[in-house]
Structure formats: C-alpha cells, structure tokens
Specification:
Layout: E1 14-17, E2 23-26, E3 34-37, H1 40-60
Antiparallel strand pairs: 1-2, 2-3
Length: 83
C-alpha cells in the first residue's frame, strides 16, 4: 500500500432549513456544490461527501482547488421593499 499525502481543506457551508423538513446545504466557494439531509447531522455528512466529491472531480480535471479566504464574514443584510 502506498503512502498518500492528505491535505485538509476547510470550507464554509451554509445550512438552511428546508420547507419540507431537513436541511439544504451549499458551499459558496464551490459553485454548484449543493446537497441536503433529513437531519442536521445527515446534512453535515452529505456536505462533507459533496465537498470531497467536488474536489476529486476538480483534481481529475486538473483544475485548481479553490481556497477560501481566511477572512470570511457571514452576516445578514436587511433589505427594504415597499409592499
């Protein structure tokens, strides 16, 4: 068995409660990387699997692996709209 080097990538994942239950998860720095789970724990597991699959596809395509900025700020922005 060959020794393989392992690199850990940390990405911000956004979990939103789905109307039908469970959670939808997306990773902003990985466009199109979206998954879901019936529970938060399942959604976390699915997100890890989706991220690893996404990175493997990029590696297979010889594409650059995105690096997330260390200075990510997540906040809510209120927007006004006349109704």
């Amino acid at each position: 068995m060959r020794n393989q080097k392992i690199k850990i990538y940390d990405y911000t994942a956004v979990f939103e409660e789905a109307e039908e239950g469970g959670y939808v998860v997306y990773v902003p720095v990985l466009p199109g990387c979206v998954t879901q789970g019936d529970t938060f724990e399942e959604a976390q597991k699915m997100a890890k699997d989706a991220i690893e699959g996404y990175l493997l596809a990029l590696k297979d395509l010889h594409e650059e692996i995105p690096k997330e900025s260390e200075n990510v700020i997540i906040t809510r922005i209120p927007a006004r709209m006349a109704i």
